[in-house]
């Protein structure tokens, strides 16, 4: 095929004739070594010139296509130097086509030159194929990989296979053995190869599992409990997973560590469009009292949004336990039950809280500090700043309105509390009478 494209025989004969004339002119007629060296030098120069010319023409045509048609593919190929890398194949092919005619007989120089040329050709072809494969993967990742699956590890494996094949071919050329024989001999070194490439093999298997099960994507927010990784996945390769924490530090993990242990992926929360609030406040148990009609009436005047609930409970004469996601759960028996009903109604009316998710205000297990009251709801956004602002506003509202229900939030005793206890006597007990300090006694002789 190459001979039909390049008339190697005619070109070689033409070059040999002129080389003979040159040797006759300088008085080196019939010097075979000089002919071989000069011929090789001319062939190398000619091949490099043809390679440069072809590369120039290809790049010129690609630029014209990019400018005239605004072709995106041509522009990306230029940016990633795909055509430039592929054009490096031309010089070794020209050398392989013309060099055989430089030697009339087998010689040591011929063997050395051909081995070097075959190795050079193999490396150049492998570089070109790897660049084309990388470009194809990049296009696929941008256009078709809509789920951002971690496929880069598979691409690294493919390129690694290309280079392993190229190395085997180069070694076979050097030792003058068949590549098949070398591959057969690799079985004896399988254990050593598995030890050397352990991380790469584990990374490949982990990458396949992560992609197949859709466990991880670039852009996911993950938390790995056994590490300090808590941030956005920025890159997944054959041997590493890079996570950018919220302080902009980068944590690098081996992919198989995510398979061998557990990790938390927040993608489900982000895709759902809502984020959970599950936080408690603690009320002093001494402030929880039975309600009276006057208390209920005063609270309804201050907070009209619970009038409908109070009227419904009073008309039915029994507590209401409605099933559902966004219902009011509360009672009229205690101020805490009335406060639960108010907070449920307030959350339902709050536009920042999602109404298609569970809303629940419940009393948790009492402890030594008091009675915990937990709010369980979901914000209508997943943005971190907005989520924290909504959550803060909810609990600030609880702190502001709880005293109107006769409730007091629990606080640990502070220094001020201790001072008050010391200098304020309990009711019905006389205050301590300060006594003068005793005079120091004289030392006994």
Topology readout:
Blueprint: H1 2-5, H2 8-26, H3 32-69, H4 72-79, H5 82-86, H6 90-98, H7 108-143, H8 152-175, H9 179-185, H10 190-196, H11 198-212, E1 221-223, E2 230-236, E3 241-245, E4 250-253, H12 255-260, E5 264-265, H13 267-272, E6 275-283, H14 293-302, H15 307-316, H16 335-349, E7 360-363, E8 371-379, H17 384-401, H18 415-423
Helix pairs in contact: 2-3, 3-4, 3-6, 6-7, 7-8
Describe this structure in words.
This protein folds into 3 domains: 1-144, no CATH class; 147-268, Roll (SH3 type barrels), CATH 2.30.30.60; 273-405, no CATH class. It has 18 helices and 8 strands. It has helices at residues 2-5, 8-26, 32-69, 72-79, 82-86, 90-98, 108-143, 152-175, 179-185, 190-196, 198-212, 255-260, 267-272, 293-302, 307-316, 335-349, 384-401, 415-423; strands at residues 221-223, 230-236, 241-245, 250-253, 264-265, 275-283, 360-363, 371-379. The model is unreliable at 1-7 (pLDDT under 50).
Helix content: 55-70%
Report the radius of gyration as a whole number of Å.
41 Å
Q: Tell me the distance between the termini.
A: 128 Å
Low-confidence stretches: 1-7
Derived from helix and strand composition plus strand pairing, the structural class reads: alpha+beta
> What would the principal axes of the Cα set say about the shape?
elongated
DSSP summary, beta strand count: 8
How much is the average pLDDT?
A: 78
Order of helices and strands: HHHHHHHHHHHEEEEHEHEHHHEEHH
The structural domain count equals 3
Strand content: 5-15%
Strand count, sense and closure of the main sheet? Answer: 5 strands, antiparallel
Number of helices: 18
Strand order of the largest sheet: 4-3-2-1-5
């Amino acid at each position: 095929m190459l001979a039909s494209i390049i008339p190697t025989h005619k070109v070689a004969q033409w070059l040999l004739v002129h080389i003979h004339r040159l040797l006759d002119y300088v008085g080196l007629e019939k010097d075979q070594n000089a002919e071989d060296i000069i011929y090789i030098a001319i062939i190398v120069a000619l091949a490099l010139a043809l390679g440069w010319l072809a590369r120039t023409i290809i790049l010129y045509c690609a630029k014209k296509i990019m400018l005239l048609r605004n072709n995106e593919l041509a522009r990306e190929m230029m940016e990633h130097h795909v055509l430039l890398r592929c054009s490096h194949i031309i010089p070794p092919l020209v050398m392989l086509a013309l060099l055989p005619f430089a030697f009339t007989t087998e010689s040591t120089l011929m063997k050395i030159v051909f081995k070097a040329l075959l190795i050079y050709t193999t490396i150049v072809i492998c570089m070109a194929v790897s660049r084309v494969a990388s470009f194809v993967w990049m296009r696929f990742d941008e256009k078709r990989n809509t789920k951002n699956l971690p496929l880069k590890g598979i691409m690294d494996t493919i390129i690694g296979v290309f280079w392993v094949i190229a190395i085997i071919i180069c070694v076979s050329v050097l030792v003058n053995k068949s590549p098949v024989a070398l591959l057969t001999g690799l079985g004896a070194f399988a254990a050593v190869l598995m030890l050397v490439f352990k991380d790469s093999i584990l990374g490949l298997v982990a990458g396949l599992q992560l992609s197949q099960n859709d466990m991880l994507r670039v852009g996911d927010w993950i938390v790995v409990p056994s590490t300090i990784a808590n941030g956005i996945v920025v890159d997944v390769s054959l041997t590493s997973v890079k996570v950018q924490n919220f302080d902009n530090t980068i944590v690098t993990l081996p992919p198989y560590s995510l398979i061998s242990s557990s990790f938390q992926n927040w993608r489900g929360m982000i895709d759902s469009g809502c984020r959970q609030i599950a936080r408690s406040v603690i009320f002093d148990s001494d402030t929880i009292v039975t309600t009276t009609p006057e208390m209920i009436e005063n609270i309804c005047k201050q907070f009209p949004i619970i009038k409908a609930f109070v009227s419904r409970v009073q008309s039915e004469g029994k507590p209401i336990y409605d099933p559902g996601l966004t219902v009011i759960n509360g009672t009229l028996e205690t101020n805490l039950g009335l406060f639960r009903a108010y907070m449920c109604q307030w959350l339902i009316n709050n536009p920042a809280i999602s109404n298609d998710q569970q809303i629940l205000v419940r009393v948790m297990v009492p402890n030594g500090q008091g009675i915990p009251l937990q709010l369980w709801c979901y914000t209508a956004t997943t943005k971190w700043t907005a989520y924290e602002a909504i959550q803060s506003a909810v609990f600030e509202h609880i702190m502001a309105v709880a005293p109107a229900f006769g409730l007091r939030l629990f606080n640990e005793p502070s220094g001020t509390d201790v001072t008050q206890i010391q200098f304020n006597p309990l009711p019905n007990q006389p205050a301590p009478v300060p006594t003068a300090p005793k005079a120091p006694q004289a030392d006994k002789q």
